Amino acid sequence: MNVKxxxxxxxxxxxxxxxxxxxxxxxxxxxxxxxAARDLKELNIPGAHPVELDITDPVSVAKAAQICxxxxxxxxxxxxxxxxxxxxxxxxxxxxxHFEVNTIGTLLMSRAFAxxxxxxxxxxxxxxxxxxxxxxxPESGPYSASKSAQWSLTNGLRNELREQNTFVMGVHPxxxxxxxxxxxxxxxxxxxxxxxxxxxxxxxxKEELIIDDAGRWVKSTLSSADAGYxxxxxx
Length: 235
Fold this sequence. Notes:
The chain is of the alpha/beta class. The protein has helices spanning 16-27, 58-67, 91-119, 141-161, 191-203, 213-220, and strands at residues 7-10, 32-37, 49-52, 73-76, 124-128, 167-172, 208-210. The protein has a single domain (7-230), classed as 3-Layer(aba) Sandwich (Rossmann fold), CATH 3.40.50. It is built from 6 helices and 7 strands. A 7-stranded parallel sheet has the order 3-2-1-4-5-6-7, sandwiched between helices. α5 (191-203) links the parallel β6 and β7. α1 (16-27) crosses α5 (191-203), α2 runs parallel beside α3 and α3 packs parallel to α4 (141-161). The longest helix has 29 residues, at 91-119. It is globular, with a radius of gyration of 17 Å.
């Protein structure tokens, strides 16, 4: 898909990767870009159409689907990350919230907007996943588990939406240079680079995009005798 002349909704648009998506889409010639966030006071992107949206609230999602009933492309970018291991005191509560946002929130959005995309001839859906879809590390156990489930969800959606001609793409970044990874000492990719690579891959109809070398290494270990979770991720 070429985004020029298309109408797009980006969730989690108030900052970081979501905001970078909105700016790049406008620059690329999208005819309309809905910038969605829970708090509209945090949204200030000239040229974008602000939409109040909480992806964990079915009522909010349904309302957004009515307002944005003309989209050709859905970018499921909104996500949640709280650092902590699986055996922490608050890990059960943390896991529930990670799944509510990253996994169930993506499903609510996909289910609500699938009919919208169908009416537009199929369109496309981009799900922002993670290298941690394939790797669970002590620093982010609940997040990794939710992203693994979101990856599986994306694969399932791709199969179910193929009949209505909706293209589903999964994007697996490593650390991105945004507020979410501010406290991490590691190699990071700029949000602008992630967006540029994603829109290029969308134009080439790539169903899966891995952003960096660390991600490619992690993915390769899934079919290796040396499982990735037994070794440190190369920087």
